[in-house]
Amino acid sequence: MPISGALTCGWLILACFAWQCMPAPKSSEKVIQANLVGMETALNAGEMQEVAAYFAPEAIMIDRDGLIAANREQILTYWQQYPIQAGRWSFELIEVTESADRAHELADRHDIPDWRRYLQKVDTMPVYYALGQSTLLHQFGGESYPSSVLFIQIWQKKSHGNTRIVVDCFTRKE
Q1: 67 within domain boundaries
Q2: For residue 138, which phi and psi values (nearest 5 degrees)?
Q3: In sequence order, which ranges of 22-129 are alpha helices (DSSP H)?
Q4: DSSP string spanning 144-163?
Q5: DSSP helix/strand/coil, 53
Q6: How many whole angstroms separate alpha carbon 152 and alpha carbon 138?
Q7: Other C-beta atoms within 10 Å of 153: how many?
Q8: Burial (Cβ within 10 Å: 0-12, 13-18, ≥19) of residue 33
Q9: Cβ-contact 80, 69 below 8 angstroms
Q10: Stated pTM of the model
Q11: What is the CATH number of the domain that holds 97?
Q12: Which terminus, N or C, of the chain has the lesser number of Cβ atoms within 10 Å?
């Protein structure tokens, strides 16, 4: 085997070993990622009722100006008011943490609104804080307008076994 082939083979073996040694994503991260993909698919299909189903009945939505929605029905109404160009919503999950302190640090760093004044505590554990970015293409008057936000969502495993959003707070990217 030529030297270059041996080096390539050695690098491949090293890469495979390193890949196997990398920690697998936490199960909470996998669940949240799967839910975000489900939300993205539903919204891109125009299924706003299905999008709203990813929120707990008592969920709240907050932006820089304050409380937008105080329950799942209001969140559904919020989503129904936007004409979304089909197939044009995407998420990027940046970090998932179980630490409220870490979530507040991320929110402060990214100028995401503080949800604590609206929600004193989440009633059951465990909860997961997800930092991500969402990009959406709106349609108004025949024109397309992109909108990107950074968000922190608080996800909670509910008694029926599904993990749902209880808090969704976001800030528009400039």
Answers
A1: yes
A2: -90, 155
A3: 27-44, 48-52, 72-80, 100-109
A4: EEEEEEEEEEEEEE-TTS-E
A5: coil
A6: 21
A7: 28
A8: middle
A9: no
A10: 0.78
A11: 3.10.450.50
A12: C
